Amino acid sequence: MPRRLREDQGFIYDCSTYLNQRWEEVKNRLQTADADEVVEPLALNQDLIQLIRDCLQSSTLTYHYVLPTQLLAKAVNPALDAHAVQAGYLGSGAFDARTIAHGVIVPFDRDHERVLGGSPEPYVNNPLRVPGITQDYRGAQKNRTDWDKLVAVLDAVESSSDSSFARTVFDQVLFEIYRLLDTVSVMYPTPNRISLDRTNQLIDEYLAARSGGERMEVVCTALFRVIGRRFALFDEVRREKVTASDISSGMSGDIECLLDDRVVLVVEVKDRELTLVQLDTILDAVRARHITELLVVAEQGKESHNQDIIDARIRSEFTSGQNVYVVRFADFALGILILFGEEGRVEFLGEVGSELERSNARIEHRRAWADLLRQA
User: Fold this and answer.
1) Average pLDDT over residues 267-287
2) Reduced to 3 states, what is the DSSP secondary structure of residue 238?
3) CA proximity to 73, closest of 162, 8, 138
4) β-strand 293-298 against 323-327: which pairing, if any?
5) Is 224 helix (H, G, I), strand (E, B) or coil?
6) 214 and 140 in one domain?
7) What interhelical angle do 363-374 and 329-358 show, nearest 10?
8) What are the pLDDT digits (tens) for 90-144?
9) Three-class DSSP category at 177
C-alpha cells in the first residue's frame, strides 16, 4: 500500500474515532441536562455561535459540510490549517479536506437523518473547487455572504493563541448539529400487516427505555386517536408536550379526549407508580372543569404502601359522581388492539410516528421508533 494512502486512511480513522467520541459526549450532555442548565462550549462568544448556526443552515448546501470537516481535521491535527481545502493550498498545514468530508462527515450525515443535507460528495461541488476557504477565493462564490461567515469562523480558530480552541469550536458545531436534528423529519416504515403479539412486542421494547414519560404519552395519544376514529368515541384527542405543565397549557391532564367540543375523558400518564399526592392533584384538576371520566395509565401501578388508601379514594370519588380508572398500558391496550384488527393495528403504529413528529419529540425517541418499525 502506498505511503500516502496509508497516511490518509490513518487520518480518516483518527478523525472518525474523535468525531464519534465527541458526538457521544455532546449527546449525553444535551440529553441529561435541562435546557436552561446546558453550558455551551462557546457560551461566552455568542457572535461566533451565530456564525456557526448561519453556516450550518446556509442556503448553499455545500457550505453545511465545511465547518464540520475543516474543524474536525484541525481538532485531530492542530498543525493543519483549517482554511485548507486542497493539499496544494499555499502555506504550511495544507491537507486534502475532501478525504475527511467524504470519508467521515458524509457517512456521519447519512447515519443521522441527513441533517446536513444528504450531499454524497459536497467537496466536489463548485463552491469548494478552490485551494482554501479564504477571502482570496470570495470572488469564485455565488453566496459571498455565507462564504464570509465560513472564513470568519476559520479565521477565529487560526488566530487564537489557545491550542484547544479548535476543539472547543468543533464541539459547538456538534451542539448545533444535534439541535438541528430536532427539526429533521424521520421516515417511519410502517409495515403493511402486523400481528397482535408483534405489536405488543414493539410497544414493550419502545417503552422499556427511560424517557421522562414522553414515549408513554406519545403511544397513549396515538392509541386514543385511533380509538376516536375507529369507534367514533371522540372528535379530537389533544396533548401538549411532556415538558409543558397541564396548568400552563390550560389542560386538565396529559391527554384530553373531546366529543362535540366537550372533554369527555382525561387521560393522565405515569411511567412510574401513581402516588396518592398525584391522584389528589389530578382529581382537583378534573373536578374544577366538571369532567367525570378520568383514566390514569400508570405503568408501575399504584403506590404500593398507599394502595389501600388509593383504592378507598377511588371508591369515594365514585359516590360523588367521579369515575376513576387506574390501569397499566399493556392491560388496557390488549383488548383495544384485538378489536382494532390488523388494519387498525397498522394504523396505530403509523399514528405513533405521526404523534412523534407532531410534537417534535426528541430525535432519539423518533429514531428509536423508526428503527423498531424496520424490524417489524
Assistant:
1) 93
2) strand
3) 8
4) parallel
5) helix
6) no
7) 110
8) 778 999 999 999 999 999 999 998 899 999 999 999 999 999 999 999 999 999 9
9) helix
What angle separates helix 196-208 from helix 214-231, to the nearest 10 degrees?
A: 150
Residue 127 · residue 63 · CB < 8 Å:
yes
**One domain for residues 128 and 207:** no
Q: At what angle do helices 66-76 and 165-181 cross, to 10 degrees?
A: 140
pLDDT band at 1 (very low <50, low <70, confident <90, very high): very low
CA gap 229, 189 in Å, rounded? 22
C-alpha cell of residue 289: 372543569
Residue 244: the pLDDT is 47
| Tally of domains in the chain | 2
Q: Measured at the alpha carbon of residue 100, what is the angle toward residues 94 and 105, in degrees to the nearest 5?
A: 140
Q: Give me the CATH number covering residue 317.
A: 3.40.1350
The reply to whether the predicted model has a pTM over 0.70 is no
pLDDT in tens, 182-203: 788 788 999 999 999 999 999 9
Domain that holds residue 326: 196-374
Question: Sheet harboring 293-298: ordered strands across?
Answer: 236-239, 255-259, 262-270, 293-298, 323-327
The overall average pLDDT reported for the chain is: 92
Q: 3-state class of 302 per DSSP? A: strand
Checking if the pLDDT of 295 tops 90, the result is: yes
Contact 325, 294 (CB under 8 A): yes
- The phi and psi torsions of 221 (rounded to 5 degrees) equal -60, -45
